[in-house]
From TrEMBL, chain B:
PANTHER family: ATP SYNTHASE SUBUNIT B (PTHR33445:SF1), ATP SYNTHASE SUBUNIT B', CHLOROPLASTIC (PTHR33445). It is a single-pass membrane protein. InterPro entries: ATP_synth_b/b'su_bac/chlpt, ATP_synthase_B_chain. It comes from Qipengyuania citrea LAMA 915. This is ATP synthase subunit b. The lineage of its organism: Bacteria, Pseudomonadati, Pseudomonadota, Alphaproteobacteria, Sphingomonadales.
Length: 273, 164
């Protein structure tokens, strides 16, 4: 988050004249909630939790604007309806007619991740706020991935019982190949939640680190004098603008990939072979 | 990397608040609001489909009526043409009949006239014969002093006239 970067620079640069690109991912308890606990587990209301709350509220307001239920939709309603239609179409294309019952979950998942990614990119530092992208934490993306994976397992065993294990034997496999193929399929199946969670976490973190590093180039280059400012600071700044646009794209793509893979995995469970 | 460095102290808070807020998102937005939004879309789609269906039905009805009108029109035209043709035929037959009648009348008149002419000619010829016979009797008695009877004279005249 480059805007955060400026703030970090103000805080840190004064003492060490050095930018820590990882500082933006630090979790801090807010308003003295550091000691909150449930059954011995810490549940401090952190900056991460605050941005989850903000994401939920913004998403709620966004969808609320599409609830006017007019026959001839306004612009806002049109946007919300195109999002629900997008998820609906994706599920119908990947799973079929039975896919419609997963629209609430996949819509929540897609929009929650999308809004979290986009809100984390907002230049709110201008107003003195400190944006935090909680999707750059694998504790968060991991839980989302585990929820998706659990749904796949639940649906699979609910619908097909123990027959669900035949997922590990691709259709038309010759009998002698089964002992070799089944473990490979099993491993690739078990890797799914990890790849799902890590992909989003890595993509978001990498983008934010890159922006932070570039912002440190801009600041340090400019501080080092006019020549360095023009040679290093200005190109870095121009590059940052491009990377910002790219990050907006990545925010959408990663949310889409997460939702798409979830729907593909659900398809495996829903339509076994 | 704070994600790993702070893992032990923060994971429970992260998981807890994520479940709270994603749960709210899923149950309030996903299950509460999204179905209503989609219902509106479905309602609109069905409304549009119904309107399109009604428009199509109306168009079909219009096409049908036009077709019926065309058939009726063609029938009427054919009937009118038949009437015209019939009238023409009748008129032609009538005039032909009239012409024929006039022709017969003319032919009859012509024949009568010819008969009359022939009669007149015969009458004239007989008179000429009689006159010629008398004249021949006269001439013969005067020139030769021979008294010729009327039948002989007539016979001679007839002979002379036929021979020219």
């Amino acid at each position: 988050m480059f805007v955060t970067g400026f703030r970090d620079v103000r805080d840190v640069a004064a003492e060490q004249a050095k930018v820590d690109p990882m500082y933006q991912f630090t979790i801090e308890p807010l308003a003295g909630s550091g000691g909150w606990e449930i059954a011995g587990y810490n549940i401090a209301f952190t900056n991460s939790a605050l941005w989850m709350l903000i994401t939920t509220v913004v998403l709620f307001l966004f969808v609320l604007g599409g609830m006017k239920r007019e026959l001839v939709p306004g612009r806002w309603q049109m946007v919300v309806e195109s999002f629900t239609g997008f998820i609906d179409d994706m599920l119908e294309a990947n799973i079929g007619k039975e896919g419609r019952k997963y629209v609430p979950y996949v819509f929540s998942l897609f929009m929650f991740i999308l809004f979290a990614n986009l809100l984390g990119l907002m230049p709110l530092g201008v107003f003195g706020l400190h944006p935090f992208t909680f999707t750059s934490h694998f504790t968060v993306t991991g839980v989302l991935a585990i929820i998706s994976f659990s749904i796949v397992l639940l649906v699979g065993f609910w619908k097909h019982g123990l027959h669900f294990f035949s997922l590990f034997v691709p259709e038309g496999t010759p009998l002698p190949m089964i002992p070799i193929l089944a473990p490979i399929e099993f491993i690739s199946f078990m890797v799914r939640p990890f790849s799902l969670g890590l992909r989003l976490f890595v993509a978001m973190m990498a983008g934010h680190v890159l922006l932070e590093v570039l912002s440190s180039f801009v600041i340090d280059g400019t501080n080092a004098g006019a020549t360095f400012g023009l040679m290093v600071g200005l190109p870095s700044f121009i590059l940052m603008i491009g990377i910002c646009a790219l990050e907006l794209l990545v925010a959408g793509i990663q949310a889409y990939v997460f939702a798409l893979l979830t729907s593909l995995y659900i398809n495996d469970a829903e339509n076994l072979h | 990397m704070p994600q790993i460095a702070q893992l032990a102290e923060t994971w429970s808070s992260q998981v807890f608040w994520l479940l709270v807020f994603f749960g709210i998102t899923f149950f309030v937005i996903g299950r509460g609001m999204v179905p209503k939004v989609m219902e509106t879309v479905a309602q609109r789609d069905s409304q549009i489909a119904a309107d399109l269906g009604a428009a199509k039905a109306a168009r079909d009805a219009a096409d049908e009526q036009e077709e019926a009108w065309r058939v009726r029109e063609n029938e009427n035209r054919a009937a009118a043409q038949a009437i015209v043709a019939k009238a023409k035929d009748e008129a032609a037959a009538k005039s032909e009949k009239k012409l024929k009648a006039a022709q017969t009348r003319l032919d009859k008149k012509l024949a009568e006239a010819e008969d009359r002419i022939a009669e007149a000619r015969t009458a004239a010829l007989t008179e000429v014969e009689a006159v010629a016979a008398e004249a021949a009797q006269d001439i013969v008695s005067r020139l030769a002093g021979v008294k010729v009877t009327k039948p002989v004279a007539t016979k001679a005249v007839k002979e002379a006239m036929t021979h020219g």
